[in-house]
Amino acid sequence: LAAGATAAGARAASSTPSAAAEVTSRVIPVPASVQAGGGAFRLTSGTAIEVDGGPDAPDSGSQAARDVADYAAGLLRPATGYALPVVQTLAALGEGGGRADGPAGIVLALGDTDQGLGDEGYRLHTTPTSVTVSARTPAGLFHGVQTLRQLLPAAVESRTAVPDTAWTVPDADIRDVPRYAYRGAMLDVARHFLTVAQVERSIDQLALYKINTLHLHLTDDQGWRIAVSSWPRLATYGGSTEVGGGSGGWYSQQDYQEIVGYAASRFLTVVPEIDGPGHTNAALASYAELNCDGKAPALYTGTSVGFSSLCVGHDNTYTFLDDVIREVAALTPGPYLHIGGDEAHSTSAADYVTFVDHVQQIVAAHGKTVIGWHQIDSAHPAPGAIAQYWGTAGDETDVAAAAQAGTRLIMSPANRAYLDMKYTSSTSLGLNWAGYVEVKTSYDWDPATFVKNVPASAVFGVEAPLWTETLKSNADLDFMAFPRLPGIAELGWSPAATHDWDAYRVRLAAQAPRWTALGITFYRSPQVDWP
Ligand code: TNX
């Protein structure tokens, strides 16, 4: 083991086992390295949050650090009842990352104060008078704040004051960097429409576990959920219903930008998905000219898959896709656009290849990198394309061949990472086509080795999809995501050497009071000793 992996870190810190043990029994994803710090820190009514924007402050980096400090203050003020003023300083960091002098408090320090923290890593160091989070980037500071949050008592999540609480941060010196650059979750807003408020609530849950990507499945047979000015009926008609026949809904371009901006404030990138050639009944119903026979089918509110297809041989199809992808790309600051490509059972194999190859060109023309469900590996994945694996067996030879040839992989094996699979045969919500996925099954796999003959370097990250055929309310979403989502987040962030179900189930149990304080309904799996 390289020094720095938690298992090694925990051993190296055996002179002070409590520091590492406290952190590794409480924080998800478990940090890459935990050593003893300078002593535990306690927040008081006199604590301030100091922002050190680094040597170049004030500049845009400094403003971003300030935003993270304001966010941290917003998290910590309600439960503590403390003022926690945010103050900006230019002071240099003291030895070991703590403050040399100056006011006691929480310090967020941006700059190249530490080596090897990369784009998202951070260091968190406690002393009796300070807890300092340092990072090279604002994203790193933000992730460090999530760790700080989880080191405080669960009551910190309360939105009302919890008096007589000792707001203690245990002694720790944490250095933490992610295993994978892409750590995602997907919301299917097509089968059941989810409001902007529901999506933002999910974003906050994802941020707590250092997930950095929100994939929005915006279009499917049952609904088209984003306004496209050049094809307005997609939303107004195609978005007018959902599974079960409810009234559905759709995001105006302003709504979508609101979601993108909220995600960015939590350091998540939005990946919009426009699915094709299958999963397109809502579009086909909205515009007759998209159909090979020129006839618009009825809207669809059931849960079957594989019955719809865009007309691959029609020019209209590519005019439509070019318009949609141009508009969606322009609204999306992130580098990716997801083209779907799954379950095209009503498209011939040859047409499928024609379609995927053409759509990839359109996405490239609008400046985005293609992500597609792993069936795109049966076409010709463009240079830089990313395939999202949602199989269960791990023996797909076309996926392995594409990975060997340079197509990166996002790992979402359905029998592990799908948050919509039932936990057991008695789970009332969810589906079971990929089997039952209890908490241990969901956690206990390795993204690097799940698909045979894939080079570890081809794995770009992990994603937990939440399909909504059976889900609608916040309570529904929560119950399926918790407690599995934190496990997928840990697979994406923590070093493989830290992977250990027995240790993980202890950390997971410790999260439950936090979820309760946050109003998150969760499945009390018998595999975990909940408090
Ligand atoms: C398969 S996964 C689908 C979705 C369903 C999901 C339900 C994938 C790429 N396609 O259309 O919603 O199963 O688990």
TrEMBL record:
Residue span(s) of domain Glycoside hydrolase family 20 catalytic: 180-495
Superkingdom classification of source: Bacteria
Beta-hexosaminidase bacterial type N-terminal domain location: 25-176
Its EC number(s): 3.2.1.52
Transmembrane segments: none
InterPro entries: Beta_hexosaminidase_sua/sub, GH, Glyco_hydro_20_cat, Hex-like_dom2, HEX_bac_N
Keywords assigned: Glycosidase, Hydrolase, Signal
UniProt keyword Nucleotide-binding present: no
Enzyme class, first EC level, given as a word: hydrolase
Catalytic reactions of this protein: Hydrolysis of terminal non-reducing N-acetyl-D-hexosamine residues in N-acetyl-beta-D-hexosaminides
Pfam family, any one: Glyco_hydro_20
Family of this protein: Belongs to the glycosyl hydrolase 20 family.
Protein name in the entry: beta-N-acetylhexosaminidase
Species lineage: Bacteria, Bacillati, Actinomycetota, Actinomycetes, Kitasatosporales
